[in-house]
Amino acid sequence: MHHVVVVLEDSTTLKLPENHMKNSYLVRVNFVVCQLFALLTACWFRLYLHPSKTSPFIRHVVATLLGFYLALFCFGWYALHFLVQSGLTYGIMIFTGVEHMHRYCFVVALGYLTLCQITRVYVFDYGMYSADFTGPMMVITQKITSLAFEIHDGEKMPSLLEYLSYNCNFMGILAGPTCSYNDYIAFIEGTCYQRKRLESNGKENGKCKQSDPSPKRDVILKLGTCALCLLVYLTFYRVCPVERIIDDPYFTSQPFFLRVLYLYLSMLSLRPKYYFVWTLADAIHNAAGFGFSGYSKDGTPQWDLISNLRILNIELATSFKTFLDNWNIQTALWLKRVCYERCPYHPTAATFLLSAMWHGVYPGYYFTFITGISVTLAARAVRHNVRQHFLGSSTLKLFYDVITWASTQIAICYTVVPFVVLAVGPSLRFYWSCYFYLHLACVLLVVALPVKRRTSRENVQEKQSPSRSQPADQSIHSSTDNNCNQKEKTT
């Protein structure tokens, strides 16, 4: 979801903000209404089109048709781009050999997405929050490329109906998130519960075997989280928008400490918008019966298979990596599968650049992700050289955690300002007002602090093991990860 920067160069442009606000309001209302409709439809889908009552074919057809209906309602005939992108890549999958098919699909899907983003931004609607049809295309691009890599790694080719259902189903057409194709097919066919029970318990649990776990509790909790996040965003972000620290002379003249504090508060009030969108999308999938990941130790069903964020882990993150591991989780997993694990040279830099390309063509995205490369490398160097000196006592460890939490929050706020303001001018004005302090500090830390080069075996082990900040069962959530790891072991 993009933010707005409107530059008034002369008096003839004064009418733009009013038109923009009306358009922006209408788009947001349409989005929320469609997602609430999808939520109610998901409940109906789970109860009346349960796998025990109907065939996978009917479930695929209904999910696909409802998805196209929502797409047409929100984006009009721009929704045809979803079919064109999916059709082109499906043709590549059919007529191209498995050896190179994943590369061609990756280039075509990402290239078509980028072409649409360039056309929308620089030809029709720069900086304006219109009905951005490229948002769903971003998720479809993830699904297309993930599936292409899965097929390359040994999975079977889907039928056209299965392919369209996976890409354009009503649960994820508007806000995602992406998921493994195998997990989606297991949901449609009704085999996901049995598989996850076996993964969680090692054998079928007699009590759980009688009925599917109910997502009611998790859906209600997530909807409550959505309501709270929306309230926080609507209440506080209007009071402290991030643009004010760049353009308001009063704020730009304040002491550095106060400007940093205001920046943190503005980003703190902005994040609930994303929490609302992603948590609502997660609740829609759960209401349809998708997202079951197994049982906890006390037997409670867990519905976090495709969750896209962990709010407490984000707000209490003590490292840049921990923040990224818990923010937009499914996109991070996609970047890991298709880029980081397969890129032979400089995988960190390549992953950040791919993320910038995927997000769009606004210059602010590239400012943010290029800055993110330096921050990640610097944080890695500090952790490697400093952290072990603070593990001797609980007091030192607490002191270290407080310092790293504050540093992480400041670094995140500093890094994502261009992502919010989008344009080159405001981004440079902000960084110049801060004297590029974080850029310079990161360069000095990377140069001054040595980091031991990891061996190939250590890299493979890190890729095969789940992230430290993720639950242990996260590694079994995606069939793509398992296929990729098996291929690495074979090699």
UniProtKB/TrEMBL annotation:
Membrane topology: Multi-pass membrane protein
Keywords recorded for this protein, A-Z: Acyltransferase, Endoplasmic reticulum, Membrane, Transferase, Transmembrane, Transmembrane helix
Subcellular location: Endoplasmic reticulum membrane
Residue numbers spanned by region Disordered: 458-491
Gene Ontology BP terms: lipid modification
The keyword Transferase belongs to this UniProt entry's keyword annotation: yes
Transmembrane segments: 25-49, 61-81, 101-123, 219-239, 275-295, 364-382, 402-424, 430-451
Start-end of Polar residues biased regions: 462-485
Pfam family of the protein (one): MBOAT
Keyword Transmembrane on entry: yes
GO-annotated cellular components: endoplasmic reticulum membrane
Protein name: Membrane bound O-acyltransferase domain containing 2a
